[in-house]
Amino acid sequence: MIAWTLAYRNLKGAGLRTWLNASILSLVFVLILFINGLLDGWNQSAKQDSIAWEFAAGQYWAQGFDPLDPFSYQEGLKDWPQSLEGTPILWRQGSIYPDGRMYPLIIKGIPAQQELLALPTALLAQSQAQFPALIGHRMAKNCQLQKGDRLLMRWRDQKGSFDAQEIEIAGVFDSPLPSVDQGQIWVDLLSLQAKTGLENKANIWVAAKAKPQSVAGANWQELEVLLAPINKIIEAKKGSSQFSYYILLAIALLALFDTQVLSIFKRQKEIGTYISLGMSPKEVQLLFTLEGGLYAIFGLFLGGLYGAPLLYYLAQNGIPMPEMADEMGVSMGKAIYPVYSWILILKTSLIILASSFLVSYWPARKIARMSPVAALKGKLQ
Amino acid sequence: MKKILCSLVLILFTMAPNWAQTASEIIAKMDENMNAKTQISRSQMVIHGRRGSRTVESRSYSEGNQKAYTEYLAPARERGTKMLKLGDRLWIYSPATDRSIQLSGHMLRQSVMGSDLSYEDMMEDRKMQDIYSLRLLGEEELQGQRVWVLELVAKVEGLSYPKRKIWVDQRYYVPLKEELYAKSGQLLKELTFSEVKAFGDRYYPTITHYKDALKKGKGTDFILLELALDEAIPEHYFNKSILKR
């Protein structure tokens, strides 16, 4: 206990030096929390958006179907049992010709009455057009299209014959998910099935319930499997951002280390006095280590003082994302709401505390090798 | 009056089969003129793009409709690229990777060197009469020549173009124009043939203009520079071993 009291008094006496060390450690603490919270918040919102717009409770894929392999769209088809709850989607390759420019895309047929996914497919049912279609805002921007535009679309029927017809854009939806927007167009399932000669056929079945029944000729895709690419992207982002804040932490720790070395060098007489008054070198070593560690505790406290309201404000109001961020290819809404878990706060605190104690202990080891008499005389050792 | 009507109906009934027969004959004669036993040609493909035109030169060897081998001569970027068609299989050799790949399925629907032609367009080797029902629509004048206008409607499933229209030169039995339609009747591609020249006792259009009707742009010109007919082609030209550096 005496060591704690002494360490606290010494730090108080150090004044500006204590404030500088604590400030930089608090900055690192807040920054680590902010970056990780931002990425966790992004991860959480990307998952929620993916569930709402694309995956629901999971998907069945017809055997042989692979969304990344356009060659499989033709073979990976099946009739789906009526007992399944959810919505079927038919994928076909095609092209549209906005203003005479060819734009290859995936034509996706979805029931106009579906309510499982957030896609505004009701617009397809409400439209008076002969062949209405929906596109996302990214696609609309790329092709310079807007609601009400008419353009030609070409595709092949199930036997491979070309077919083409004029479509009308019945609506442009605003989805945070590029994977339901870029390079694709949504039309009514029945209409697409009739035009391609694929009555009752679809490539995937988006399930409404998480516990699926076994469907012959189809593979069940767990939600976790479907969301795995998002997790991987976030992990990769975390990995790259860790590098920057660990460098900052290293600089802070270097400052702490420097302070400790200087203090042991300058306070040799004090060390000698402690030992002559009855403290063992180990106890003096502990005192100096505690002094270093206290910088981290002050830093965490200081970080909490200004970081807590700041991080809380950001978590409530979100961080607006620039327009450019939308083109990164992953789900990113107009703002990201950071999420700070207790595990994250605890882990970050422990990392800062442990590393601070370690760099404080390192130079303090020298005290054990000091001669008390020489230290009292103030001789350099 | 009744007699006149009956005579007219009778004439129409007797003419109809003649027209159908004539349409088949026209296509048969066109095939006979256009299909030599072997063909060796040097040609240029002028691809008109948005930022200008580029020319690809090639030499081709073909035997009937089933075997064809093409080697690209220019530009430097395409030089050495080879294409071999044997029946319904197509291989492409790329000198940059020193690899041959077999094109199949959807890959055949890709454009050839960025032109308005797809590999699939080049692969069609069945006789028109076997896959299309023929109908003579009438006669008209095109490029200053009398032509027959024929309508071809698919009689087998899975043809890329379920409907075609061909304008056939009455003097030389060569096509002067062709239109390719989608199932819905939408015009997809237009081919215009010109500069008909004699090669021995056969006639060939030496310039073919391909135009994707759905796209803006000037299309692609296929210019026949040299053509030798019925000359012997060594068998190794139609072997996969030719697809090497």
TrEMBL record, chain A:
Task: Give the ABC3 transporter permease C-terminal domain ranges.
Answer: 245-372
Q: Which GO terms describe its cellular component?
A: plasma membrane protein complex
Example GO biological process term?
lipoprotein localization to outer membrane
Q: Which UniProt keywords apply?
A: Cell membrane, Lipoprotein, Membrane, Transmembrane, Transmembrane helix
Q: How does it sit in the membrane?
A: Multi-pass membrane protein
Name-wise, this protein is ABC-type transport system, involved in lipoprotein release, permease component
Q: Which Pfam families match?
A: FtsX
Q: Which domain of life is it from?
A: Bacteria
**What residue range is the signal peptide?**
none
Mark the transmembrane ranges. 19-39, 243-265, 286-315, 335-362
Compartments where found = Cell membrane
Q: Which family does it belong to?
A: Belongs to the ABC-4 integral membrane protein family. LolC/E subfamily.
Q: Which InterPro entries match?
A: ABC3_permease_C, Lipoprotein-release_system
TrEMBL record, chain B:
Uncharacterized protein TP-0789 domain residues: 64-245
Extract the InterPro entries matched here: Sporulation_related (IPR052944), TP_0789-like (IPR033399)
Q: A Pfam family matched by this chain, by name?
A: LolA_like
Q: Which Gene3D superfamilies match?
A: Lipoprotein localisation LolA/LolB/LppX
* Annotated CDD domains: LolA_like
Q: Which UniProt keywords apply?
A: Lipoprotein, Signal
| Cleaved signal peptide residues | 1-20
**Name of this protein:** Outer membrane lipoprotein-sorting protein
| Species whose genome carries this gene | Saprospira grandis DSM 2844
